[in-house]
């Protein structure tokens, strides 16, 4: 097998994607079970994913099992693999994935689903769980999109719902004990466990929640890819969950409550990660990093212990204080990205994005005063109740930003405002889960309005393609039958759908035709507030009544304050040992 | 003040698939992991001072590659060798590391490189092809480039190839390739030339760069008084 793989590598683009042996990768001689973990996209995208890193180090450091990795081969490689009959192999051992005991695949977004089928097929594992035998690995999934497992359930033996750290150790122990038993028997046992959805034995499943973020589970020696990856930096999750309560946000509604890591843990882990990887940059990641209670002290502490380290902060809040924080990070100046999401105060209240016009103006002013020349602003169109006035609001914010830039920036001529406009995709387990996506026609008109009316000088407008978003929407709120569309689309040639140049709408058209429907029909489907939803059997721990209440408040443009600073909004997530943890 | 070092390392096995720029990052991270601070370049975007004498093609192994780098502080040599040796990624191995007193980078002084090409099959004609290669006065190949193809006389760079018969060493050829100010060749071009001579395809199992030959630095220009009476030019500083 090894020589066959090597001979393929002579003929493909970027062969380093397939060689393994990276610093931080683990090779075990003695192990109870062999697990392969996958991100269903190409190597340089997949290695940047933190979920795989966390589970990889958890399995390798805390259990007797051995975790390896496999990513989706680029089409040039998969073509050769099929021609030469080389099955999908894991990077660490270069052994077939099919021979593993378990195969875990993370579901980060819907447009990676066809790659999952591609990988199963390359591995020689039957696509559907019903067709697998005791010789096949148990294929499981996890990650944010597991919140609605139905569209993809046909392809998995079981699906982890919620925080993987909570379920994984117990899962491995159980499988070590039951090794060699017929898979149906094992799956039946798994179906009774917390946070595990077994498509063969469906039942109500409650999301697993890890009550606090444990220092021991931080991947302090993460894998350092031997080739350029999309995030060439150390990444530490400093908190999980966000209670800002933006009504469109899947992650904010799903990963509740807020659990911050102690500040000492953050500093210790970042220093260990940087020393162990040789990276010059570390990212403090979370859904809203500037909300971390001790962010200022943490940045100061890190700057002191590691003066040459660049710290990057993703997801900046639209708020001048947050922008000032960047001054503490020695981050390269240049551009800054802010997300007001909607153009008018009314619509921002509808989506519960608690940002005022003044916040936006002050944040932009602060950015230009701080020496930046480019401000990127991120908006969505197609939000519930949107009118032309809201679109005009986007244009007004853009022109205001340009005016501020011209008066505040050191070189007004170099000021650049980039406006990025995506189409809103409603997601399961959010207050907007009942309403359909805008039709293609509506969204086209809205994009057209912006294109026609947005001033051009020093403002660059970019709108996202409509069709990938519609496919995402059709799958995100899909049902069991959606699996047939995914398989049909893959058979028609869809793959790497998140890559603009690879997205193949014709294939998806065929995919949806397989269930007698269209992309648009599925994407725009609305449910009545009291109608059963396909994902009702997944309990996110946030009560459905809370989501209904939030939906009604949205219709009245009424905001719900963040429970971190305001009153409890009674979402129902805090119960037993699950509660908000702040580090101060 | 910067402290200049030179390391020699090999990059073999699967590591041959790591491309040139990625090799640079791998080496930089290894040096940082070993706990040594880089000297940084001047300017808007300071970068660590590290360079390789000559890029190695993807898929080509290197037995004795040369890397120049500068540290902020003097490093004890045994410690540097030990720690660095532990930190190189799989497939890359440290051969030696020591201080460098050259004023210019190795990259600007490469005179020639040596290759060994091992064959997977054993074509009966290859000794004949090699003999004829050595006798030709010029062998012109077409180098395909996006900007327009270009003719190269490969004999300008590789005068002769030597056979290794497969008794003591694997069957194949070895040769030295000149690196000139006008350019140089690529190892696969030699295979192309040999295949062209006898009209048959050759299957290769390995291409290995065995050595990089560096020109000695010219002695420093004698100190001559500058316009203001002080020593002015002392060579390019790294």
Walk me through this protein's architecture:
The complex is a heterodimer of chains A (584) and B (238). Chain A has 584 residues and is α/β, with parallel strands linked by helices. Among the domains of chain A are: 2-206, Cobalamin-binding domain (Rossmann fold), CATH 3.40.50.280; 233-331 and 542-584, Transcription Regulator spoIIAA (2-Layer Sandwich). Chain A is 36% helix and 13% strand. Chain A has helices at 2-9, 43-46, 50-62, 75-83, 113-123, 150-153, 164-177, 183-190, 250-254, 263-277, 295-305, 320-326, 345-350, 357-369, 388-408, 440-453, 466-476, 482-491, 505-513, 519-523, 544-555; strands at 34-39, 66-71, 102-106, 138-142, 158-160, 196-197, 205-206, 234-237, 239-240, 259-260, 281-285, 310-312, 335-341, 374-381, 416-423, 459-463, 538-539. The longest helix of chain A has 21 residues, at 388-408. Chain A starts with a helix and ends in a 29-residue tail after the last helix. Chain B has 238 residues and is an alpha+beta fold. Chain B has two domains: 3-103, Alpha-Beta Plaits (2-Layer Sandwich), CATH 3.30.70; 109-214, Alpha-Beta Plaits, CATH 3.30.70. Helix content of chain B is 20%, strand content 30%. Chain B starts with a strand and ends in a 24-residue tail after the last strand. The interface between A and B is medium-sized, with 25 and 24 residues.
């Amino acid at each position: 097998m090894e020589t066959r793989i090597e001979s393929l590598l002579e003929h493909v683009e970027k062969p380093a994607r397939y060689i393994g042996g990276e610093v931080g990768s683990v090779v075990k001689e003695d192990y109870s079970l062999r697990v392969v973990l996958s991100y269903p996209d190409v190597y340089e995208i997949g290695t940047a994913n933190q979920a795989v890193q966390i589970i990889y180090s958890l399995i390798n450091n805390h259990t007797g099992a051995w975790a390896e990795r496999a990513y989706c081969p680029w089409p040039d490689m998969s073509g050769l693999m099929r021609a030469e009959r080389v099955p999908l192999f894991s990077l660490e051992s270069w052994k077939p994935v099919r021979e593993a005991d378990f195969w875990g695949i993370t579901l980060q977004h819907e447009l990676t689903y066809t790659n999952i089928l591609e990988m199963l097929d390359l591995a020689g594992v039957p696509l559907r769980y019903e067709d697998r035998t005791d010789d096949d690995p148990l294929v499981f999934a996890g990650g944010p999109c597991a919140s609605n497992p139905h569209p993809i359930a046909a392809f998995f033996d079981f699906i982890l719902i919620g925080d993987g750290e909570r379920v994984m150790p117990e899962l491995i122990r159980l499988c070590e004990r039951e090794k060699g038993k017929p898979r149906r028997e094992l799956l039946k046992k798994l179906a009774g466990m917390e946070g595990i959805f077994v498509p063969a034995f469906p039942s109500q499943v409650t999301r697993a929640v890890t009550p606090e973020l444990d220092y021991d589970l931080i991947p302090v020696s993460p894998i350092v890819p031997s080739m350029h990856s999309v995030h060439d930096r150390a990444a530490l999750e400093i908190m999980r969950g966000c209670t800002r309560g933006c009504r469109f946000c899947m992650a904010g509604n799903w990963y509740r409550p807020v659990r911050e890591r102690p500040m000492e843990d953050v500093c210790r882990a970042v220093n260990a990660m940087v020393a162990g990887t040789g990276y010059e940059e570390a990212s403090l990641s979370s859904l809203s990093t500037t909300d971390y209670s001790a962010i200022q002290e943490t940045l100061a502490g890190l700057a002191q212990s590691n003066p040459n380290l660049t710290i990057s902060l993703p997801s900046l809040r639209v708020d001048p204080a947050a922008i000032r924080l960047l001054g503490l990070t020695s981050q390269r100046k240049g551009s800054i990205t802010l997300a007001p999401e909607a153009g008018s105060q009314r619509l921002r209240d509808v989506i519960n994005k608690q940002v005022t016009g003044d916040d936006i103006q002050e944040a932009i002013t602060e950015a230009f005063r701080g020496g930046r020349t480019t401000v990127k602003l991120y908006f969505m169109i197609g939000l519930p109740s949107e009118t032309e006035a809201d679109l005009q609001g986007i244009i007004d914010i853009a022109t205001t930003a340009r005016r501020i830039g011209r008066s505040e920036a050191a070189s007004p001529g170099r000021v650049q405002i980039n406006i990025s406009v995506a189409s809103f995709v409603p997601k399961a387990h959010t207050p907007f889960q009942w309403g359909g996506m805008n039709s293609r026609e509506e969204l086209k008109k809205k994009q057209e309005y912006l294109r026609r009316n947005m001033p051009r000088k020093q403002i660059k407008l970019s709108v996202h393609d409509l069709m990938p978003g519609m496919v995402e929407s059709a799958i995100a709120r899909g049902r069991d039958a959606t699996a047939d569309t995914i398989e049909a689309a893959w058979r028609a040639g869809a793959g790497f759908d998140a890559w603009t140049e690879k997205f193949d709408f014709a294939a998806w058209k065929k995919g949806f035709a397989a269930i007698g429907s269209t992309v648009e029909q599925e994407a725009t489907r609305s449910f009545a507030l009291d109608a059963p939803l396909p994902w009702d059997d997944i309990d996110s721990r946030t009560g459905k009544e809370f989501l209904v209440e939030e939906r009604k408040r949205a219709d009245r443009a009424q905001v719900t304050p963040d429970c971190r600073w305001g009153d409890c909004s009674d979402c129902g997530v805090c119960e037993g040992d699950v509660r908000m943890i702040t580090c101060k | 003040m910067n402290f200049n070092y030179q390391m020699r390392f090999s990059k073999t096995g699967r590591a041959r698939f790591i491309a040139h720029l990625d090799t640079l990052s791998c080496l930089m991270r290894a040096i940082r992991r070993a706990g040594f601070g880089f000297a940084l370049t001047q300017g808007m975007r300071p970068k660590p001072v590290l360079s390789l004498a000559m890029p190695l093609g993807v898929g080509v192994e290197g037995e004795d590659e040369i890397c120049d780098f500068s540290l902020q502080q003097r490093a004890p040599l045994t410690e540097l060798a030990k720690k660095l040796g532990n930190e190189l990624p799989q497939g890359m191995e440290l051969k030696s590391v020591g201080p460098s007193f050259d004023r210019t980078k190795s990259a600007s002084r490469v005179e020639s490189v040596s290759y060994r090409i091992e064959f997977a099959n054993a074509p009966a004609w290859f000794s004949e092809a090699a003999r004829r290669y050595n006798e030709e006065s010029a062998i012109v190949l077409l180098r395909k480039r996006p900007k327009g193809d270009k003719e190269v006389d490969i004999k300008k760079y590789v005068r002769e190839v030597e056979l290794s018969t497969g008794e003591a060493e694997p069957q194949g050829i070895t040769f030295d390739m000149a690196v000139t100010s006008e350019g140089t060749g690529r190892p696969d071009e030699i295979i192309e030339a040999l295949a062209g001579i006898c009209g048959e395809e050759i299957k290769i199992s390995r291409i290995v760069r065995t050595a990089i030959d560096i020109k000695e630095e010219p002695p420093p220009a004698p100190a001559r008084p500058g316009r203001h009476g002080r020593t002015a030019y002392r060579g390019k500083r790294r």
